[in-house]
Amino acid sequence: MPTRRHFLHFSALTLPTLSGFKSYANSLFNVQTPKYTEGGNKPIVVSTWDSGLPVNKVAWKVLREASGRALDAVEAGANSIEDTLNCCVGLGGNPDRDGRVTLDACIMDEKANCGSVAFLERIKHPISVARKLMETTPHVMLVGEGAQKFAVANGFALESGKLSDDAEKNYKKWLEKSEYKPIINIEQQQIKAKKKGKGGNGPFAPNYFEDGTFNHDTMGTIAMDASGNLSGACTTSGMGFKMRGRVGDSPIIGAGLFVDNEVGAATSSGQGEEVIRVCGTHLVVEMMRMGKTPLEACQIAIERIVKINPIKAKDFQVGFIAINKAGEYGAFSIHKGFSYSVTHSDDGGKVFMAESYFK
Ligand code: SD4
User: Fold this and answer.
1) DSSP assignment letter at 202
2) Which of 81, 184, 203, 264 has the most CB atoms in a 10 Å sphere around its CB?
């Protein structure tokens, strides 16, 4: 069962409720677990979540051309979801606890060029700002006001900062229960608050939304083009109702995204703090360098996270996806429910359910 909320951008037009959205999503996509990875897929694009399927579709238009570049493909894919209304990517996403949407994104190409923006406000396409930074400056990362200034100086429009209707509604609902003051050892209290949807409205961000789904849904996209070159992009509004200024793994090279053109690429979604702790996607790629398949490499990285605190891991989600130079792909998550989208032909792609540590 996909548990994603990205489909709100479809539901805004056609579906009034989350349950309606879920059954709509199920009827659209054949969610399944692959028995094995398939080799030799080139070009290929893989994205986090079932909402990655339309993202892949956009990326595929670039990749299916002999001269199509993976970097252009992942940027176009990221732009497409940044343009849609959804909870977790782009300016329509859920705000921080101060009611402001702050965006994180990064991009990396086959030559280890990388660009990243974090805590960026009122700019529609953070992934393109990250690419601009990568291609026109000696820097890798810009944050906050400086990132916004750079974006505007490079022709990106400064948007109004007004919340989307969905985000406004979600924020008001969150405010009803929010506790703004930091609580020491809140994680322990969250573990005790086992009841899904109840725990976590502390100083950081709720682990779960009211409907019981995990609070995160970043778009990570990794691709290999017809020339065999790899690139990746990761874009998000981060965890909903996060502390102001909080930055997750998504804009951090080696955490939310890593590409090594000799080996493979990986990206992540989930509770960023836990991914940062183990340099998650760098770990996945290094495991592939040592000969592990993408699936095995993702599993090893998840096990590394769980091992740090197996009790705490029961209450947060992290998922990794990876591809290697042979065109194999794989994914693994801590909990059930992490879907991912794979496209390597004109057939429209497929959604798979990742295997998970907790069954
Ligand atoms: C974060 N990893 O900000 C990102 C968010 C994510 O789903 O996946 N959100 O920690």
Assistant:
1) S
2) 264
User: Between vectors from CA 221 to CA 218 and to CA 223, what angle results, nearest 5°?
Assistant: 170
Closest-CA residue to 231 (of 113, 321, 87): 113
Taking the C-alpha atoms of residue 206 and residue 188, their distance in angstroms, rounded to an integer, is 13
The domain spans of the chain are 4-164+208-356
| Residue, of 85 and 259, whose pLDDT is higher | 259
Question: CB-based burial of residue 67 (10 Å sphere; 0-12 exposed, 13-18 middle, 19+ buried)?
Answer: exposed
In this predicted structure, what is the pLDDT of residue 204?
Answer: 64
Query: Is residue 122 lining ligand 1, measured as CB closer than 6 Å?
Result: no
Which of these ranges, 22-26, 111-115, 151-155, has the smallest mean pLDDT? 22-26
Burial profile 268-301: b = 16 or more Cβ within 10 angstroms, e = fewer = bbbbbbbbbebbbbbbbbbbbeeebbbbbbbbbb
Q: Are 120 and 104 in contact (CB under 8 A)?
A: yes
Nearest-atom index, ligand 1, CA of 104: 3
Give the orientation angle of helix 70-82 with respect to helix 52-63, to 10 degrees. 140
Q: Which residue has the higher pLDDT, 17 or 172?
A: 172
- Residue of 271, 316, 335, 339 best suited for mutating to test ligand 1, as the one with most atoms within 8 Å of CB: 271
Q: Check if 218 is active-site.
A: yes
CB neighbourhood size of 18 (10 A): 16
Query: Does 274 sit in the ligand 1 pocket, CB within 6 Å?
Result: no
CATH of domain 4-164+208-356: 3.60.20.30
Displacement of CA 41 from its chain's centroid (Å): 23
264-270 and 318-324: which strand pairing?
antiparallel
**pTM given for the model:** 0.86
CB-based contact 336:358 (threshold 8 Å): yes
Residue 196 bridge partners (DSSP): none
User: Alpha-carbon distance 293 to 310, whole Å?
Assistant: 24
Q: Looking at ligand 1, which residue's alpha carbon is closest to its atom 3?
A: 238
